[in-house]
Amino acid sequence: MICKDMKYTALYWALRFFEVEENVHVKNYNGYKVKIDAEAQTVGYGDKIKVLSDSLHYLKRHKDFVILECVDRLLSAGVQPVDILLDGRQGHPDIITKEHHINCEQWGEDYENALKNFNGDGLIYTSRLVSGLLECHTSEMLFNKVEGSEDFEIYNDELVFYHGKEKVVKIPEGIKTIAASAFWNNVFIEEVILPESLVQLGGDCFYCCYNLKKVNIPAKVSLMGNNPFAGCPKLEISNFSPCFKLVGGVLYSADGGNLIHYTIANTAGQFNIPQGVICIGKHSFFMCDNLKKIVIPSSVERMENNPFSGCTKLTVENHSAAYHFESGVIYNKWRSNIIGCLNGSTIEKLVVPDSVTAINRNSFWNCKGVKNIIIGRNVTRIGYNPFAWCDNLLLESISPDFPCENGIIYDKDFTHMLCATNRAVGKSFRVKDGVTHINRGVFSGCTDLKDIDLNGVIYIDKSAFTNCTALQYVFIPDGVTYIGEWVFAHCTSLKRISIPRKTFIDKNAFNECNAEIEWRD
Questions:
Q1: If 0-12 CB within 10 Å is exposed, 13-18 middle and 19+ buried, where does residue 517 land?
Q2: I need a surface site. Which of 118, 198, 258, 519 has the fewest CB within 10 A?
Q3: How far is CA 70 from CA 75, 106, 125, in A?
Q4: Is the separation of the CB atoms in 69 and 134 below 8 Å?
Q5: Cβ–Cβ contacts within 10 Å for residue 38, how many?
Q6: How far apart are CA 363 and CA 54, in angstroms?
Q7: How many Å from the N-terminal Cα to the C-terminal Cα in the chain?
Q8: Could you tell me which residues come within 8 angstroms of residue 316 by beta carbon, excluding any fewer than 6 positions away?
Q9: Mean pLDDT across 435-442
Q10: Three-state DSSP class for 83?
Q11: How far apart are CA 94 and CA 110, in angstroms?
Q12: pLDDT of residue 29 exceeding 50
């Protein structure tokens, strides 16, 4: 499986399931336990929740995870296990309680189609994990666009995206949610004034806003995704929420269990993470290049998605039994997952150990001192291109699931291009015959690439060509059905791109890219 397995593991943590043994995740609801076997992709709902269909014990469809998340929401809200019935038979609700009959749907088209055919009987429910924060919609919610400044894209009480170029931005009162990535890479803003009505701050919402200096966290904010302030080197935060605490420029959850954000502008060379921190969040130390040493306490049980990326001088003193550091590479305690690699690591050759079955997304991001990696024979999962921006890296593989040709990693059917590096791609590249999918971030950071022949590609995933700064002209073949978010973002030399009119282009595909688009019928 490619990267979605990693996403599911992130979902288990977001639901606060703890990995009690390798691949076994458990959550305790006042003495009642639900258990997930991540390797078998199964869930045990315990002996009090009645499950009528055996298929509901498997976690393979997106819908299965929506059902799991909804059950978690019900149990966390105090609904008794004996009052929950999981049906799942054709024509029947997925979840039945004393209060509701609930039909769960996959986020997106499935949910939208279910709403169109909804007859008002029961509830339709969907959810997803976005940048560390769980979002949910139900058929009781209305999503009509409201009037307002043309700079704000607002639905109901959620600010979805800000398109403006103002230095000082005041978010309207009444907004309760700032969506994930809402201000992503906005280089114009210097101050954002968040409203007192705000409850939820999406993950990565101010990611790489290089000139942002001031943001307030209002008193009602109780939910926050993955470091909303990552990559903001000039930022000072003011916190007024009792759900969080700000100590010396470091933002934690109120109980101190989650470390969310470390201020880039902090000049200290060493930081001792306080005892009591359980989770080091995604991007929490992103680009904190003043740091030369971090001490990880024994209390840490989880490190999200390589939290030390962009720290090129960093060394780590580790006291957590949950992780193992070796030559700058971070493994989980069973050495079955590669979690990350310190950016300053110098590695001539890394043969991934036979114990490793998974290489996490972003794990080697920007590791310019890593020269050669051989994917181990037992690796069965790779997160989306973990080798992006590894300029000097040449990849090899002895895994049957991930064959390698000329430094490019593919799926075993050679239909998906999974991982590439600047060294392998070079100045001119033709996609291999039979490849239909360019996966997420594959060419990201291939700064030498000037010419690309997409050959028989039909699907180009998110961030596929981000920061390909030498790319000048791209011809999108007639068969391409989808171009994802940020695909050509920061392709600053891209002058012209030819695209079929029928191709669906997701938002921000050309962010910070001024290419002239030539539409073809």
A1: exposed
A2: 519
A3: 9, 12, 8
A4: yes
A5: 18
A6: 36
A7: 36
A8: 293, 294, 295, 296, 308, 325, 342
A9: 97
A10: helix
A11: 15
A12: yes
DSSP 179: P
Which tokens is 274 given? 């306080």
Contacts (Cβ under 8 Å, ≥6 apart) of 141: 156
Rounded to whole angstroms, the Cα distance separating 210 from 226 reads 18
Evaluate whether 509 touches 465 at the Cβ level (below 8 Å): no
- Asked whether 487 and 462 are in contact (CB, 8 A), the reply is yes
- SS3 labels along 384-403: CCCCCCCCCCEEEECCCCCC
Helices (H), 270-378: none
Question: Which pairs from 168-174 meet CB under 8 Å and 24+ separation?
Answer: 168/192, 168/193, 169/193, 171/195, 171/198, 172/148, 173/197
pLDDT at 145 over 50: no
Q: How many CB atoms lie within 10 A of CB 291?
A: 22
CA 15 to CA 12: how far, in whole Å? 5
CA separation for the pair 47, 65 (Å, rounded): 20
Instruction: Please state the pTM of the whole predicted model.
Output: 0.85
Q: 190: how many CB neighbours lie within 10 A of its CB?
A: 15
pLDDT digit string, tens, across residues 324-335:
999 999 999 999
Q: Going by DSSP bridges, is the β-strand pair 177-178/437-438 parallel, antiparallel, or unpaired?
A: unpaired
CA–CA distance, 111 with 115 (Å, rounded to integer): 6
- CA-to-CA distance for 63 and 105, rounded, in angstroms? 5
- Residue 301 · residue 319 · CB < 8 Å: no
Contact present, 252 and 258 (Cβ < 8 Å): yes
Q: How does the average pLDDT of the chain come out, rounded?
A: 92
CB atoms within 10 A of CB 124: 20
Provide the 3-class DSSP secondary structure of residue 464. coil
Count CA atoms within 13 Å of residue 200 on its CB side: 21
Helix, strand or coil, per DSSP, at residue 170: strand
C-alpha to C-alpha distances, 213 to 179, 204, 259, 261, 324, nearest whole angstrom: 20, 16, 21, 15, 36
In sequence order, which residues have a C-beta less than 8 Å from that of residue 22 and are 6 or more positions away?
A: 334, 336
- Determine contact, residues 372/351, Cβ cutoff 8 Å: no
Among candidates 521, 504, 511, which has minimal Cα distance to 488?
511
Residue 122 bridge partners (DSSP): none
Residue 263's DSSP bridge partners are none
Specify which residues 124 forms β-bridges with. Answer: 103
Cβ atoms within 10 Å, residue 299? 17
Residue range 141-155: mean pLDDT, rounded: 62
Residues 500-517 have a mean pLDDT of 91
Are the C-beta atoms of 345 and 366 separated by less than 8 Å?
no
Token couple for 326: 């070796």
The mean pLDDT of 475-490, rounded to a whole number, is 95
Q: How many CB atoms lie within 10 A of CB 338?
A: 27
Residue 382: which H helix or E strand, with range? strand 381-382
d(CA 187, CA 165): 8
